[in-house]
Amino acid sequence: MAQSLHRVIVSGTGSFLPNDPVPNDRLDDILGTLDDAPARVQGFIKNTAAMMLETGGIQRRHFAIDPETHRLTHTSAALAEEAARRALKAAGKKPTDVELLLVACPMFDCGTPPTSTLLQERLGIEECAEMEIHSNCSGVGKIVQIVFDALRLGRYKTALVAYPQLSSAYLRSCYFTQPAMTKTQAALRYILGDGAGAVFFESVRVDGNGSVPHEVVATYIESCGGKREPGMTAGGGLADLVDPDTQIARSAELGAHHLDQDFTAVSRHAGLFLDQGALRMLKPLGMSLKEVDHFIYSIPGRQLYEANLSRAKAQYGVTDEQVKFRATNTGYCGGASILLHFDESVRSGELQPGQTAVVYAVESSKWMSGGFIVRW
Questions:
Q1: d(Cα 57, Cα 38) in Å, to the nearest integer?
Q2: pLDDT digits over 102-122, tens only?
Q3: What pTM value is reported for the model?
Q4: Are 81 and 123 in contact (CB under 8 A)?
Q5: Looking at 106-188, which runs of residues are DSSP E strands?
């Protein structure tokens, strides 16, 4: 006789924002000025950057940068460690209780070994199963789906996931080949920030079909970019090394390593894909968007938030109380944002017993999305 599946619960959450908060008027002090950028980029910074900051809805953000030396104060593994230790503490667990360790991040610390093993070492875990997923905002959905399936099947009893976002590595003036910069590459300096989030999961056995507190009831990931142009790009990989005459030095000279964004495509597609992915995740549960108590979404700015909320209100009947703009005092930390805000909602008591939260993010790089549903 086949055994029933285990149930998966959230035992602890944690998050971390590095160093002191940086107000909008100090961004260039921390990241460094772009004195050698083209005139059109200089004009953009002078005329448009202040407006972006004013309308973006973010008042302060955090960077893993020493304001005096401009050195990075954390690696991806170091950011993840801080959040992971807080999740373990909230769960009442020790690092040695971790059977499965997963990390997702857009920028790994080394080509090899994986960042997941570096986090394992920092936590002092001698042996565990580990895995790293190279992804941006959809990375949380991917690692949680792996955990959900592995714990339900009984392969492991415990799992720790972490997502660090070290955007400032791409944003410091020293990273850019400034004469090769574009306006959109400069614009990302006024949007992104650093941070990390983590969650500790456990499997439990329950008789019958009764509810279980803090239960993960669904996960979902999808990619709908098979025939779409990328919405976010960053070089520095093997694709830049195909031509023997264009190796690392030449790629850097051309600015191929710069992080770039198609803001028009993001405005057109991101909010729609966010809601559509959440709907497809809810469908097997027989739920609609208006039945969810909290949407913990990854939304980089207030303008995009308000446009998405307006459409979601009209199409799906959601309310302001269900979908909130949460990045005002944390900054937008890419994929880490949904775990940061999930941790906030748990620790503040906003997420009440019996309520349902959709934790979901869309990634513009190749139009992927993913997340999970938890019934608290």
A1: 28
A2: 999 998 999 899 999 999 999
A3: 0.95
A4: yes
A5: 129-134, 158-166
